[in-house]
């Protein structure tokens, strides 16, 4: 498994900031699929027990309901979980995997649908043999569903946490006066977007002054479009301080000065 974790994909921003993503290997993905398969079995068993009550009316109706329920659950499980959990299922979450757009962009619903509909092809002839072979020969460890949907699966390994108190200390965070907007910000921001904020702050000293100003201007504009704070909360603060405030909201549940 350690060997799999060394396969990385590097995405660079126009400002020269590079983000390395650890690609999940076929073995780890297969284990996640086994967990998901067990989850589908449990859900399907529950549905079968519920459909059994239809046998009182008609055994044929009960059998048709069981078949239909299994089809909907087997297809809908991956679509629903990966969409609402932002690229994760139960198996992926337990093994710290996540589906992402291959360019690092936000995962779209049509991508989730395409990759899950093609699971049937990837699973042929048995135990994901087609999908496993595709992962082995693909430079980005993609099965056929990933290739069609332009997605990758990454492994989020345990990393040493940065010293947030040292990184974010300095000025009072005016965003803290608006808890409902803080909650909205946390809800709308993806894991990848939060990671970009943190990486930008951690690596700001590596940038030229002009590139640093441009980078934080772009990041600040992105979050201003996502959630609009009142003017009194943003007046007089630089773009970099705006991004610091966002990071403080996203990464720290406790804060000084309140």
TrEMBL record:
Pfam families: RDD. Its main location: membrane. This is RDD domain-containing protein. Residues 24-150 form the RDD domain. Keywords: Membrane, Transmembrane, Transmembrane helix. It is found in: Membrane. InterPro entries: RDD. It comes from Desulfonema magnum. The keyword Glycoprotein does not apply. One of its GO terms (cellular component) is membrane. It is a multi-pass membrane protein. The chain crosses the membrane at residues 30-55, 61-85.
């Amino acid at each position: 498994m350690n060997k799999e974790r060394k396969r990385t994909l590097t995405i660079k921003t126009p400002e020269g900031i590079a983000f390395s993503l650890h690609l999940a290997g076929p073995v780890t993905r297969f284990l996640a699929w086994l967990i998901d398969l067990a989850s589908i079995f449990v859900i399907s068993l529950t549905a079968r027990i519920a459909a059994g009550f239809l046998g009182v009316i008609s055994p044929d109706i009960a059998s048709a309901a069981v078949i239909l329920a299994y089809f909907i659950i087997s297809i809908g499980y991956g679509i629903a979980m990966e969409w609402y959990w932002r690229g994760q299922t139960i198996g992926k979450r337990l093994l710290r995997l996540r589906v992402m757009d291959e360019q690092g962009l936000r995962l779209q619903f049509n991508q989730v649908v395409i990759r899950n509909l093609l699971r049937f092809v990837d699973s042929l002839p048995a135990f994901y043999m087609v999908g496993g072979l595709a992962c082995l020969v693909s430079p980005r460890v993609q099965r056929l569903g990933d290739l069609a949907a332009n997605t990758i699966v990454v492994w989020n390994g345990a990393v040493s946490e940065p010293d947030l108190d040292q990184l974010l200390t300095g000025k009072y965070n005016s965003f803290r006066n608006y808890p409902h907007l803080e909650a909205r910000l946390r809800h709308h921001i993806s894991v990848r977007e939060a990671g970009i904020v943190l990486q930008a702050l951690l690596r700001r000293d590596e940038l030229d002054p002009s590139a640093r100003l441009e980078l934080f201007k772009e990041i600040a504009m992105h979050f201003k479009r996502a959630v609009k704070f009142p003017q009194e909360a943003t007046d007089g603060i630089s773009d970099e301080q705006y991004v610091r405030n966002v990071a403080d909201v996203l990464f720290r549940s406790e804060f000084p000065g309140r």
